[in-house]
Amino acid sequence: MNSGKAAAKWVATYGMLIGLACIFSYVEAIVPIPIPIPGVKLGLANLVVIVGLYTIGVKGTIAVSLVRIVFVGFTFGNASSMIYSMAGGIISLILMILFRKLNWFSQIGVSIIGGIGHNIGQLTMAALITQTAGVFYYLPFLMVAGVVAGALIGLLGGLVTERVQNIIKNL
Known about the structure:
81% of the residues lie in helices and 0% in strands. The protein is an all-alpha fold. The chain is globular and about 55 Å long.
């Protein structure tokens, strides 16, 4: 009986996080940010990733993140957008997991590192696809965007993490 309750808790938690990440991705796709730099986004779905790292752990966060990228790619994007999202998501996730484990930074710092990592991953994929390093001239703009977006998501993530941890404990 206990294993059934644990499985139900696991399915509900992961389903909720995947659903939220997909909703945040959709909202971000339909509500443009009035910034004249192409491709700059707040990264609302990364809120779920940063909260996941601090609530459900690394394995669960990897699963939620990858499922979200694939699902959103098939639902709201195309193969190209999925490739860029996967590259950015994997680099971001690796860096956030590493710096979370090192415990050098707060949740805000880990989120900033993730935002920067996401942009580096996407630019690296763009350089590989276009076979030109010229895309890295765009990096300073994306670094600033990654720091700002990462800080906002990290700040919000810290607030949400506290509440989610309390909810998970009471399930």
